[in-house]
From TrEMBL:
Protein name, as recorded: Glutaredoxin family protein
Signal peptide span: none
Organism: Actinomadura alba
Coiled coil: none
Xref: PANTHER family: GLUTAREDOXIN-LIKE PROTEIN C5ORF63 HOMOLOG (PTHR33558)
Amino acid sequence: MSHLITLLGRPGCHLCDEAREVIARVAADVGVAWEERDITRSEEDTRLYRDQIPVTFIDGVQHDFWRVDERRLRAALEG
């Protein structure tokens, strides 16, 4: 089954930079696609997630926020 990882973040967010690195590495290793959305481009995303970024979704379901745990992300994608 193919998955899609979505990272919600914003420019200038150092935690988003760290999350992006982990997600890119895991996605490449596991062979899944990923995308990034800038919450500042959506009033709703900003309202919902401003205090939680970076936020990680797998197939549209929230998986993590603030930090991406590489082992947990791998397990969710491989399990």
